[in-house]
Design goal:
The chain has 3 domains: 205 residues, P-loop containing nucleotide triphosphate hydrolases (Rossmann fold, 3-Layer(aba) Sandwich), CATH 3.40.50.300; 85 residues, Translation factors (Elongation Factor Tu (Ef-tu), domain 3, Beta Barrel), CATH 2.40.30; 108 residues, Beta Barrel (Elongation Factor Tu (Ef-tu), domain 3). Helices cover 17% and strands 36% of the residues.
Length: 418
């Protein structure tokens, strides 16, 4: 079975945690003691129904306030597919949490309260999903029970959101009317919305095609670790371990190692248990053996001779700033981690700050503060082996780290290289 990573987003109190709780509950993916625990907590709080949101709202502060603050991950499996759900915060002050929580998602579910319609935060979350290049977007119009399951209300929300989405880069957009509280169109079809002919949410999640979303054209293998067993029977073994970031790799392929540029051929590709593979592809973790002894170490990149990433020290990127203690300004010096490679970087130019509510650009801005997103130009101390984020989400992204505190202060998506 393949794995689908999905993230939920939406305004505060739109029902994200309840939706995930309903998915877990109706797909029978929770244990009896978990159910007993949330039933007891729901009774203690005086809730009319079993509060399924408690399955994901794990922090005490979240339970007390009734909102999601941190990114909660939940795992479940159906006969068709495995799932990892990231329940990301809806409030504007936790934009950074949504960016990090949704950065690896294959699909995003944006919840919209049927009573409120498309609001500012709905647009913000849709834009962030587009910025992160999440290929599949599901708009779940929730709380349909509170508008008497009215088809016109659903169609009004669908029309307004679809019109806004034309300004975004969303290749696959699906609309589903649901009631997370009562389970309508979550796992089972709704008996009260017979006008809706589409799939339930779980059926859509099981069937959405994700195999073609990953870049299988450009082989990229950032070396994470060099394996050299110190034993007599393995004295000539030299393997390069890591996670394939793009493309397909198989024995016999001619490769180049960056930054040296030396070439060789792949002798073997080994799985984590040591068995030989006929081929491997993203995002598999493998060990690659080469026919020649090249000087390759952590942070280097193995790629095809005629298909190489840009080797550059100059990047132009969209950066989400995550630090409460500082701002990102021209001249800021930070550590940068790109794939498995570390370097230092300085901000050379500040292009604009993006208003993620209106999608307008503030070209007069000179700094990024907490949760703000802007386009900057960086210069690194040593070359990085990068693709644009549009081409490859792994080799096109990086994090920025404050060297004084070792705290991650920014996440970046490469838009252009020089």
């Amino acid at each position: 079975m393949d794995l689908l990573r999905l993230a939920t987003a939406g305004s505060v109190d739109d029902g994200k945690s309840t939706l995930i709780g309903r998915l877990l509950y109706d797909s029978k993916s929770i244990f009896e003691d978990q159910l007993e625990s949330i039933e007891k907590t729901s009774n203690d709080r005086g809730d009319e129904h079993v509060n399924l949101a408690l399955l994901t709202d794990g922090l005490r502060a979240e339970r007390e306030q009734g909102i999601t603050i941190d990114v909660a991950h939940r795992y479940f499996t159906t006969p068709r597919r495995k799932f990892i759900i990231g329940d990301t915060p809806g409030h504007i002050q936790y934009t950074r949490n949504m960016v990090t929580g949704a950065s690896t998602a294959d699909l995003a579910i944006i919840l919209i309260d049927a009573r409120k319609g498309v609001i500012e935060q709905s647009r913000r979350h849709a834009f962030i999903a587009s910025l992160l290049r999440i290929p599949h977007l599901v708009v779940a119009v929730n709380k349909m029970d509170l508008v008497d399951y009215d088809q016109e209300v659903f169609e009004s929300v669908r029309k307004e959101f679809a019109e806004f989405a034309t300004r975004l880069d969303v290749p696959d957009l699906t609309f589903i009317p649901v009631s997370a509280l009562h389970g309508d169109n979550i796992v089972d079809r709704s008996a009260t919305m017979d006008w809706y002919r589409g799939a339930t949410l779980l059926h859509h999640l099981e069937e959405v095609h994700i195999a073609s979303d990953r870049n299988m054209v450009d082989p990229r293998f950032p070396v994470q670790y060099v394996i050299r067993p110190q034993s007599k029977q393995h004295h000539d073994f030299r393997g390069y371990a890591g996670t394939i970031a793009g493309g397909v790799m198989k024995p016999g392929d001619e490769i180049a190692a960056l930054p040296s540029g030396f070439t060789s051929k792949i002798k073997a590709v080994l799985s984590p248990d040591g068995s030989e593979l006929s081929e491997a592809y993203a995002p598999m973790s493998v060990t690659v053996l080469l026919e020649d002894e090249l000087d390759v170490s952590r942070g280097d990149m193995i790629c095809r001779v005629n298909n190489q990433p840009d080797v550059t020290q100059d990047l132009e990127a969209m950066v989400c700033w995550m630090s409460e203690a500082s701002q990102l300004t021209v001249g800021s010096k930070l550590a940068i981690k790109h794939t498995t490679r570390w370097a230092r970087a300085v901000v050379k130019d500040f292009r604009y700050r993006l208003d993620i509510n209106t999608l307008s650009r503030d070209e007069g801005a000179t700094a990024l503060s907490l949760n703000e997103i802007g386009r900057v130009r960086l210069r690194t101390t040593q070359p990085l082996f990068a693709d644009t984020y549009r081409r490859n989400r792994t080799t096109g992204s990086f994090i920025l780290v404050d060297e004084a505190t070792n705290v991650t202060v920014g996440a970046g998506m490469i838009r252009a290289t020089e």
